[in-house]
Amino acid sequence: MLIEGAHRRSTATSVLGALVAACLVAACGVAAPPSPTPDPISGQYTASGGGGALPAVQALTARFKELHPAIDWVVTETGSNSAIKLVLSNTIDLGFVSRSLTESESRQVTPVPIGFSGTALVAHAGNPATNVTKDDLRRIYSGEVMNWSELGGIDQAVRPYIREPNAATRQTFETFLFGATPPSYGKNVTQMVEVDALLTAVGSFRGAIGIASTGSRTASDKRVKILSVDGVPPTLESIANGSYKIVRPLFLIYGGDLAALKPALRAFLEFVKGPEGQRIAAAAF
After folding, report:
1. Which CATH code for domain 43-116+248-283?
2. What are the Cα distances from residue 241, in Å, to 51, 79, 272?
3. Which of 45, 55, 184, 219 has its CA 20 to 30 A from that of 169?
4. How many CB atoms lie within 10 A of CB 189?
5. Spatial distance between the Cα atoms of 274 and 234, rounded to a whole number of angstroms
6. 118-247 matches 43-116+248-283 in CATH topology
7. How far apart are CA 158 and CA 127, in angstroms?
8. 191 close to 162: Cβ distance less than 8 angstroms
């Protein structure tokens, strides 16, 4: 009987202990896991500039957002010249240009290299031509050649198109074609503002030819075809190794001191300069 009583008291004590423990857990609660540290790289930022650099900037900002989901980007195309003005007026956070900076511009903004872009020669998709030489282009755009048959092609009047004077594609093209000599265009050369309008025009006439930035937008336009120049197509490889000659450098730009930029922008520029950022920029085409 004594043993049985002791057993009962022991059991009762165990049950009571369990109940007390349960009450304590219920009262105090289970310790919550620590909250993750908020990502300091957050907020919305703007970048705008030239179309030649647009694919690289879009790829870079997309990857940076994957690494830092709390950041958002608004990336627009306004042209290289506009990008410099917008950066200097603090209208945008970062600019991007698809040409070399002048000495004056280099004193006002700081460039971060993000590769190179090419200026492509595009013809109507129905034109059987696949290659033009530098001399062919000089004769076409000076008005000396008026029919593709003069270059051994189809019997079709040549309709050359060019971009507006401040377009980086035109500036690079003129440097390649005319060098230091002032450009002299034929009366049949038509100037178009913005690449979409030029691609539409070239795609509308079988004898048309024009210029556009190399890249996926131009390559995917079924109305036109990209021509080789002096036997070299404007591919990622030929632009990178210098065998394609109508090229221009691409830069991100910012104004003022780097230390004065917001932390997220400084982190983004460091990412761009790093190995992954440079690989992403080089692969954007």
Report:
1. 3.40.190.10
2. 22, 26, 21
3. 45
4. 17
5. 26
6. yes
7. 11
8. yes
pTM of structure? 0.77
**Whole-angstrom Cα distance, residue 95 to residue 77?**
10
- CB distance 147 to 156 below 8 Å: yes
Distance CA 215, CA 57 (A): 13
Q: How far is CA 178 from the centre of its chain?
A: 28
The CATH number of the domain covering residues in 118-247: 3.40.190.10
